[in-house]
């Protein structure tokens, strides 16, 4: 889509003009180009849609897109040359050497390095002037194309909220019952069940409803869910099954599991399952081989009525894997079900059609054209939810271009229409999500930082780029373009994924528009003009081609093959903005990284890289430096990285939650734009100088000495935007009493170290949502101070209280949803007053060895959904269905009782 390229270029030109990074003549040409592009933007979306049917429009768009790419190349080159001049690099060559140099040794759009700095700047300016003329010509020809004009009609709008949980049940109840009946069949031997159907029908949704149902949860205590996808690694899959089963059984995961080979893992899994009634779901299976590789680990004749479930798009795979008569075909929705799904998704369940007849006609036509495909209906509902006029709805309907005989083309047509409807600022962000592997958990914070580094995010007054990007993220979720897979303690989306059909659509568009190439099989190779590259599976051909790519802006590596390390030898991409090596099997970084002037995002998280180039501070444009969980022990100087926004330095976290940080050079901390600083090791200089970091949002400081407490408090008071704070002591306790006024936006607080009593400022934490206290040694009941915090949703006390009783007064902890009490070894009693903990969903009581009674008042906690309690043998008996305490917990859907370690 040309709109994607032009929108991105407009942002980049705006940033360049604002920063005054180029010569005066160049800035003038850029301003002229921006003005022409702004006019083009008025009709480019309609032209994009018209290009599918009109070849002349497609040719015009292609010329526009390639011109935009050329402008971006010259602009980046100009910025690079300006940076080199500022640093004193690229010394001017002598006339003789310049005369003898080659006229060109680079492809179109990238100027040869074999000329002097001044000459190269002159060439760039001339090329940009030529491109300005070309843009003007493109605009003039574009005006000759007739574009669709919308007319304003009746407006219909009312407040409504989409409810995806209710929507997911439409048409599923009878299917759910059938699968539950199969799973609970009295057949003793192992049974295999296949659920098959095309992508987008809701196979995973259906099986997930079954898997998480109360009946199945009670019947199968030993269970695991694994998403297979096309590019699974068998040892990783076996490890995941073992880990999930052991975690569900509340057993410890072997410390050496990552060192086990395939045969050892199969043996271990077989041992875990041999006497258990187990349920294993293998989601998104593409071939029979996955079952052939793990079947020896699944006991077939343990007579425990165990079950394996598969979901697949392939009928042959389904039939070959399933037991006789145990293939379930998921079919498209009937018309009534489809209408119900559309209404629940778009109109908040208004099945009576209480909206104007003109709107109903368009909605009916959309239901007909979606032909019962749930994914298509939900996505289209996401579009309709934001439409306010009949003409807009009619346009959505008319633009579906459905081919009824081909459901794959049908879903792509609907999804393509949803892509067209995205605002220009979301198109790049949506396409970018396809760089992640299939079914990959896309972390919200990570993708936001990547979008910012790529330049996809527009500035908005009063908000950081990251805050704007989070709005983008949420909007993609609301439009059903991304699916939430994890939420944090206060229900904020934490991780998402792309539906596989949606991802294939994005990959198709990205490749066609040269936006990004995703290499996830050995047959997919990047071209020399590739601008973004995601390597999911590496090959020698890819390594060879990498060395010839001159325009590459982003390189993301997900491949885990040992040959991935060869990629490091190719890191000479002068225009590179993103280098994400998260989890790659690499041990070193070449010094050439320091020459990547444009680099905004650099991650070696979860790698074995143990050192960084000493001259890393040459990366003047770097925004994110992610060293989390890597082998790097000491940070090079970053004092010159004035654009740095996020710095992650936590080297490891042990099983109790204690973090190990990174040593830093003795340079001044004056990075004014820094928002994230996690894992810095404290000293007297650090605790004073961090007061300069007034834009910090997240701050994790470790090994804090008690004597430095007052200085640290003084610095924290100046961090007025801080929303996440973790302070960990060196072993002698924390002194935080002098913090007179904590940052008002503070939402997460984690304190590790002896406090003896809660600081007075805790009563001012009106925005606090998550609080973790560890090794605090409190003598006074902390509930007295904490129960009135209005926003607190999660509280964890770990070795934090030395008293015998905790008492929650009437009406206390009104917002609290999760309460975890861990290793409170003197605790004997918990009292809950009337109306206290009125929102509590989860109560976790573990390793409290003196706690031999249920909390008083637990019977009144009507919202409680899960109780985990490590108990004595006597109390365990009293909490059984025939015991005297059972009536107090009978209302709780999930009760997990385990004998404490000290009584086993």
TrEMBL record:
TM ranges: none
CDD domains, alphabetized: RX-CC_like
Keyword Membrane belongs to the record: no
Superkingdom: Eukaryota
UniProt signal peptide: none
Alphabetical UniProt keywords: Leucine-rich repeat, Nucleotide-binding, Plant defense, Repeat
Listed Pfam families: LRR_14 (PF23598), NB-ARC (PF00931), Rx_N (PF18052), WHD_DRP (PF23559)
GO MF annotation, one: ADP binding
GO BP: defense response to bacterium; innate immune response-activating signaling pathway; plant-type hypersensitive response
Domain named Disease resistance N-terminal: residues: 5-96
Residues covered by the NB-ARC domain: 173-351
Disease resistance R13L4/SHOC-2-like LRR domain span: 552-873
InterPro entries (alphabetical): Apaf_helical, Disease_R_plants, LRR_dom_sf, LRR_R13L4/SHOC2-like, NB-ARC, P-loop_NTPase, RX-like_CC, Rx_N
Ranges where the Disease resistance protein winged helix domain occurs: 435-506
Family that this chain belongs to: Belongs to the disease resistance NB-LRR family.
Protein name stated in the entry: Disease resistance protein RPM1
Annotated source species: Acorus calamus
Gene that encodes the chain: RPM1
């Amino acid at each position: 889509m040309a709109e994607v390229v032009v929108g991105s270029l407009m942002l980049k030109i705006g940033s360049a003009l604002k920063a005054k990074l180029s010569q005066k003549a160049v800035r003038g040409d850029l301003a002229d180009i921006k003005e022409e592009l702004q006019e083009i933007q008025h009709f480019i979306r309609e032209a994009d849609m018209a290009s599918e049917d009109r070849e002349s429009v497609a040719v015009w768009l292609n010329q526009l897109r390639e011109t935009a790419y050329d402008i971006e190349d010259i602009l980046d080159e100009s910025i690079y040359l300006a940076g080199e001049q500022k640093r004193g690099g690229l010394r001017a060559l002598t006339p003789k050497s310049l005369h003898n140099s080659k006229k060109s040794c680079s492809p179109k759009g990238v100027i040869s390095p074999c000329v002097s700095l001044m000459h190269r700047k002159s060439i760039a300016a001339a090329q940009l002037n030529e491109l300005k003329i070309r843009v003007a010509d493109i605009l003039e020809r574009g005006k000759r194309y007739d574009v669709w004009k919308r007319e304003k009609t009746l407006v219909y709008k009312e407040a409504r909220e989409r409810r995806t949980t209710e929507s997911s049940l439409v048409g599923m109840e009878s299917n759910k019952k059938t699968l539950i009946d199969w799973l609970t069949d009295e057949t003793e031997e192992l049974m295999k069940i296949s659920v098959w159907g095309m992508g987008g029908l809701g196979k995973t949704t259906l099986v997930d409803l079954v898997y998480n149902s109360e009946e199945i949860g009670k019947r199968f205590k030993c269970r695991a869910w694994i998403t297979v996808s096309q590019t699974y690694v068998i040892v990783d899959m076996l490890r995941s099954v073992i880990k999930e089963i052991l975690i569900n059984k509340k057993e410890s995961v072997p410390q050496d599991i990552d060192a086990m080979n395939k045969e050892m893992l199969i043996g271990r899994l077989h041992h875990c399952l041999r006497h258990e009634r187990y349920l294993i779901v293998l989601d998104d299976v593409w071939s029979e081989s996955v079952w052939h590789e793990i079947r020896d680990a699944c006991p077939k004749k343990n007579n425990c009525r165990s079950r394996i479930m598969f979901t697949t798009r392939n009928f042959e795979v389904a039939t070959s894997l399933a037991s006789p008569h145990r293939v379930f075909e998921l079919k498209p929705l009937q018309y009534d079900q489809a209408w119900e799904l559309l209404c629940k998704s778009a109109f908040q369940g208004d099945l009576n059609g209480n909206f104007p007849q003109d709107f109903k006609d368009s909605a009916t036509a959309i239901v007909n054209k979606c032909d019962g495909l749930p994914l298509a209906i939900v996505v289209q509902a996401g579009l309709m939810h934001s439409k306010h006029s009949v003409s807009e709805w009619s346009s959505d309907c008319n633009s579906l271009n459905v081919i009824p005989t081909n459901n794959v083309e049908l879903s792509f047509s609907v999804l393509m229409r949803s892509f067209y409807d995205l605002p220009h600022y979301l198109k790049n962000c949506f396409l970018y999500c396809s760089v992640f592997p299939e079914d990959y958990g896309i972390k919200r914070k990570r993708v936001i930082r990547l979008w910012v580094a790529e330049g996809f995010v527009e500035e908005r007054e009063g908000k950081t780029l990251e805050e704007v990007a989070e709005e983008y993220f949420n909007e993609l979720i609301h439009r059903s373009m991304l699916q939430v897979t994890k939420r944090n303690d206060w229900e904020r989306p934490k991780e998402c994924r792309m539906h596989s059909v949606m991802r294939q659509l994005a990959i198709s568009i990205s490749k066609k528009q040269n936006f990004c190439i995703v290499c996830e099989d050995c047959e997919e190779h990047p071209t020399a003009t590739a601008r973004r590259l995601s390597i999911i599976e590496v090959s020698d051909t890819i390594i060879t081609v990498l060395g010839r790519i001159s325009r590459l802006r982003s390189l993301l590596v997900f491949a885990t093959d040992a040959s991935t390390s060869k990629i490091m030898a190719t890191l000479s991409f002068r225009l590179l903005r993103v280098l994400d090596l998260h989890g790659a099997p690499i041990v070193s970084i070449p010094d050439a990284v320091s020459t990547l002037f444009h680099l905004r995002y650099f991650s070696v998280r979860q790698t074995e890289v143990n050192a960084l180039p000493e001259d890393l501070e040459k990366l003047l444009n770097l925004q994110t430096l992610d060293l989390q969980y890597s082998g790097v022990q000491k940070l090079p100087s970053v004092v010159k990285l004035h654009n740095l926004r996020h710095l992650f330095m936590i080297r490891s976290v042990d099983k109790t939650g204690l973090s190990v940080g990174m040593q830093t050079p003795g340079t001044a901390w004056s990075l004014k734009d820094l928002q994230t600083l996690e894992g810095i090791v404290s000293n007297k200089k650090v605790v004073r100088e961090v007061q300069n970091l007034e834009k910090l949002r997240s701050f994790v400081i470790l090994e804090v000495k008690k004597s430095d407490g007052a200085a640290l408090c003084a610095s924290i008071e100046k961090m007025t935007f801080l929303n996440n704070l973790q302070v960990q002591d060196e072993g002698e306790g924390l002194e935080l009493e002098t913090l007179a006024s904590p940052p008002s936006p503070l939402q997460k607080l984690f304190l590790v170290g002896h406090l003896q009593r809660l600081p007075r400022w805790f009563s001012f934490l009106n925005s606090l949502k998550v609080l973790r206290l560890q090794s605090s040694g409190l003598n006074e009941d902390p509930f007295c101070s904490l129960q009135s915090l209005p926003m607190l949703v999660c509280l964890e006390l770990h070795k934090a209280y030395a008293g015998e009783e905790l008492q929650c007064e009437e009406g206390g902890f009104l917002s609290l949803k999760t309460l975890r009490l861990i290793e409170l070894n003197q605790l004997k009693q918990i009292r809950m007053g009337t109306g206290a903990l009125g929102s509590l969903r989860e109560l976790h009581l573990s390793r409290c060895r003196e706690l031999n009674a249920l909390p008083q008042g637990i019977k009144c906690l009507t919202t409680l959904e899960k109780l985990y309690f490590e108990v004595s043998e006597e109390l365990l008996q009293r909490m059984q269905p025939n015991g005297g305490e059972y009536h107090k917990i009978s209302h709780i859907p999930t009760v997990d009782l385990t004998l404490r370690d000290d009584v086993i």
